[in-house]
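User: Hey, my collaborator sent me this sequence without any context and asked if I could get a structure. I don't really work with proteins. Can you help?
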Amino acid sequence: MQIADLLILIAGLLWTVESIPQIIKLIRTKNTEGISLLFFLICLTAYILFLIGNTMLKNWSVVIAHCLPFVNLTIITSLIIKYRKQK
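Assistant: No problem. I've predicted the 3D structure and written it out in structure-token form, which is a compact way to encode the shape of the chain:
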């Protein structure tokens, strides 16, 4: 493994960890006020394009590093939609 691959994996881990407090807060409070759904939909679209492009380029360390942050982003977006529908 090259140093660049290691740095990419560490960045992916940090992006995964940084969204966990938001997920926990959303689940506990069910409060989505002040959270932009449009922002998260744009981020999801960007992640999908980013992952497809890097898969096509066979940049596997980048793809692997961004899979978990993508899952967290999907969870947050889903929770925002779910809790806004409940109101």
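In plain terms: The chain has a mean pLDDT of 92. You can pass these tokens on to your collaborator as they are.
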